[in-house]
Design a protein that fits this description.
Layout: H1 2-31, E1 50-53, E2 57-60, E3 65-71, H2 75-78, E4 79-80, E5 88-94, E6 111-115, H3 117-120, H4 132-140, E7 144-148, H5 154-165, E8 172-178, H6 182-197, H7 199-206, H8 208-216, E9 223-224, E10 229-234, E11 237-242, H9 256-278, E12 282-288, H10 291-295, E13 299-301, H11 315-326, E14 330-334, H12 336-344, H13 359-376, E15 387-388
Parallel strand pairs: 4-9, 6-7, 6-8, 8-12, 12-14, 14-15
Antiparallel strand pairs: 1-2, 3-5, 10-11, 10-13
Helix pairs in contact: 4-13, 5-9, 6-7, 6-9
């Protein structure tokens, strides 16, 4: 009797021991860096192509191809949007040997373009032919290198400039500031860097346990569609569009975190401008406004619209002053007027349910940047700062 009771107790203890052993075996490939469970558990298609990088946190896999589709943009994750308003996004993207969207492996370029998903274009379903950088190369007759990478912030873009951009010996660096994300990305980068540099934290991010637990969390409820809906009046009639928090950062007052983020961006840009001056090239800081800044004067909103009565902040003015004060080799181009003019002509540069430029927005940006370069030239170190507003 006593022996049976002892055997039963041992069996009870054996179950958790075996469970821990099995879990350890599952986690061993992740610990060794052989398997990344983020690619298998709740995988986001556009993140499947990432590999770890100790400085950047992650980067697209070199010489790779990524294809897929999604129904609905970022706004569909926030609001309960009718199916008829959702955009079908498709992408078939090829990355060069450095992990960027260039058709060929460039060894030199007249113009290098830095930025996040706005420049990379994959998240918006932009084809190679529709990319701002492709159009800019065609219009200007210059060799243009696209060094944009989705989810990157200014500090990561500075690393890209050092690691890849300057070795192309450009005369001009186009540095695209995305109002929708860059201030927040600048604040978040130290967290990314700590995770990437710490082997244990890097393992936790790719571990089976963490990724399973993330999937077990109950999903947050979506807000009613009316909370983010705007009706845009154009020369060709009206159309719907949806604004999420990234779309409408221009309508939010600058708090301590935002001011701190802008200060970090200023330090990052100054480092980049100094490096460019040493290499005989200059920087054009291109301000890509959020969707709300461009469209708010064309919209009518329901009483439920959460950004209805908020005034616009002064981020573009701050950036213009920042560019003028940081370096004599840094210039400033605000894309807001060009995007507003496009809407006045009855066109729409943003997707209905997302904050990225669509094909039209890529065209507008390429034309505005191309016009700026044609007027001011590719520039050289030591030229005076010019601001185009």
């Amino acid at each position: 009797m006593g022996s049976a009771r002892w055997t039963g107790r041992r069996m009870i203890w054996l179950v958790p021991v075996l469970a821990v052993a099995v879990l350890a075996l599952i986690e061993l490939p992740a610990l060794a860096g052989i398997v990344d469970y983020r690619h298998f558990i709740g995988a986001v298609p556009l993140r499947l192509n990432y590999i770890d990088d100790p400085e950047l946190g992650y980067i697209h896999r070199p010489s790779s191809r990524l294809s897929g589709s999604s129904n609905g943009g970022y706004a569909s994750m926030v609001y309960d949007i009718p199916a008829s308003d959702l955009t079908q996004y498709r992408w078939d993207t090829t990355y060069d040997r450095k992990g960027f969207r260039n058709k060929t492996d460039l060894t030199s370029a007249d113009v290098v373009v830095l930025g996040d998903s706005t420049v990379e274009g994959t998240e918006g379903g932009i084809t190679d032919a529709q990319l701002m950088t492709t159009l800019l190369a065609q219009q200007s007759g210059k060799v243009v290198s696209n060094l944009g990478h989705n989810t990157y912030g200014p500090q990561q873009e500075l690393i890209i400039l050092k690691r890849y951009g300057l070795s192309l010996h450009p005369r001009t660096v186009i540095w695209v500031f995305s109002e929708s994300s860059d201030v927040g990305d600048a604040a978040h980068y130290p967290v990314i860097r700590r995770r990437a540099a710490n082997p244990w934290l890097a393992f936790v991010e790719r571990s089976f346990t963490k990724n399973v637990l993330k999937q077990l969390r109950p999903p947050g409820g979506k807000q009613p569609a009316a909370n983010g809906l705007g009706i845009v009046r154009t020369a060709n009639g009206t159309l719907k569009t949806y604004f999420t928090p990234p779309d409408a950062l221009s309508a939010q007052p600058l708090g301590e975190m935002e001011i701190s983020g802008l200060d970090e961006i200023a330090r990052t840009l100054q480092s980049g401008a100094s490096l460019c001056a040493q290499h005989g090239c200059h920087v054009v800081l291109v301000y890509a406004p959020d969707k709300f800044r461009v469209l708010h004067d064309f919209c009518t909103f329901s009483p439920e619209f959460i950004y209805r009565n908020l005034p616009l902040n002064d981020v573009p003015d701050r950036l213009a002053r920042m560019a003028a004060s940081l370096s004599p080799t840094m210039e400033f181009l605000d894309l807001t007027p060009a995007l507003i003019d496009d809407v006045k002509q009855g066109r729409m540069p943003y997707d209905t349910d997302d904050y990225h430029w669509n094909e039209e927005g890529q065209k507008v940006a390429a034309a505005a940047i191309g016009d700026y370069i044609s007027v001011h030239g590719t520039g050289s170190a030591g030229e005076s700062n010019r601001s185009s507003r």
